[in-house]
Design a protein that fits this description.
By secondary structure, this protein is of the alpha+beta class. The protein has one domain: Translation Initiation Factor IF3, CATH 3.30.110. It contains 2 helices and 3 strands; from the N terminus they run H-E-H-E-E. The chain has a 3-stranded antiparallel β-sheet with strand order 1-3-2, with helices on one face. The N and C termini lie far apart (74 Å).
Length: 114
């Protein structure tokens, strides 16, 4: 009985720890030939009732892209290899803080022909 309870506890704790990070969102594909300009970090807040993984992924992307554009105002940039983790939370207001990092890549400029 103790072994079974210990195993269940181990599974629950592991699941809780893994649920706090994304893994890798918007991973850079091996076929992408983009110049990496560096990395950016950002923090953002999500209301508890909207704490779905896709919402958090989108907020992380938006926050990191804004920071990358601030740092590289004259270059067309995008973000790849996004990782985020939950930080603190304000349970009274049901708001949670997340921190994210991602690689800044330079997008190629394409010329459209008329």
């Amino acid at each position: 009985m103790k072994k079974k309870l210990g195993f269940i506890s181990f599974i629950l704790i592991t699941g809780m720890l893994l649920s706090c990070t994304t893994g890798n969102y918007m991973a850079m594909k091996p076929s992408e030939q983009a110049e990496i300009l560096g990395t950016v970090q950002s923090t953002f807040h999500v209301t508890g009732s909207f704490r779905y993984r896709n919402v958090i992924n989108q907020q992380a992307y938006i926050s990191l892209l804004a920071e990358a554009q601030r740092q590289h105002p004259d270059i067309l940039v995008d973000i790849r290899d996004i990782l985020w983790a939950i930080g603190g939370g304000d349970t009274a207001n049901n708001t949670y803080e997340y921190s994210a990092t991602g690689k800044v890549i330079k997008l190629p400029i394409t010329i459209q022909q008329h």
